Amino acid sequence: MHFTSEKLLDDGVLEREFTLGEVPGVLWTPEPVSTPVPLILNGHPGGLDRMYPRLLGRARSCAAEGYAAATIELPGAGDRPPLVSVDEARADLRRALEAGGPVSDDIVDRLVLPLVEQAVPEWRATLDALLALPGIGGPVGYSGGVIAIGTRLAVVEPRISAAVLFAGSYVPRDMVEEARRVTIPLHVMLQWDDEGNDRQHALDLFDAFGSKEKTLHANMGGHTGIPRYEAEAAGRFFARHLK
User: Fold this and answer.
1) Across the strands, what pairs with 217?
2) Concatenated DSSP letters of 165-217
3) CATH at residue 198
């Protein structure tokens, strides 16, 4: 991990940009840190520059609760090399939605599975590097999307203790079976009228999760209409499991 910039924000949060191989990311930590703090990995749909204001807001909330927060760029997004097959699948998805027709399993698989296969090992390598830093000691949570990435991480990464997942993206059907192997506590948010999601498939995924503690918060509205109070509910969830 190579830090490329460091900035102390006005609320005392230390923001450091880094690269891990070809993967760029950002780490936010509350300052000063007297004892090692828990860590939340903040997932997003790609495009760090575009997502930065929202990610910063989430990181500030984490720091206020005494957590470090970190994020990395998705494969094929931002300045990373494009993933041609994923871009083609995204174009096919857009055409299917504009035509008002169903989104085929083939499109979803081509869109999501390459991201999962590449992003999950990158997240795990990032977690290795972050937990080796002074001041970060765990436990670790995952928050956000892409929900298929969060699902795979919850299966394969034993250091993640709890996850807040946003059911705001398509999930390959094979991953519904994979979700049965998830056992960590889950807090899942679903926008009922999300234009970029299959509601029934999202409900099927939630039903498949093998966790003994899993909570679904469904709110009316589209993809960007998550009520502000949901952030408070997610904060209480992490307080139960990371503190």
Assistant:
1) 189
2) EE--S---THHHHHHTT--S-EEEEEETT-TTS-HHHHHHHHHH---SSEEEE
3) 3.40.50.1820
* Exposed/middle/buried for residue 5 (C-beta within 10 Å: 0-12, 13-18, 19+): exposed
Report the run of H or E that residue 38 belongs to, with start and end. strand 37-42
What is the pLDDT, as a whole number, of residue 100?
85
Domain carrying residue 139 = 2-242
pLDDT at 179 over 90: yes
The closest of 91, 93, 85 to 110, measured between CA atoms, is 85
pTM (whole model) above 0.90: yes
pLDDT (mean) for 82-104: 93
In this structure, are residues 119 and 149 in contact, taking their beta carbons and an 8 Å threshold? yes
Give SS3 for 26. Answer: strand
> Which helix (H) or strand (E) covers residue 124, if one does?
helix 105-131
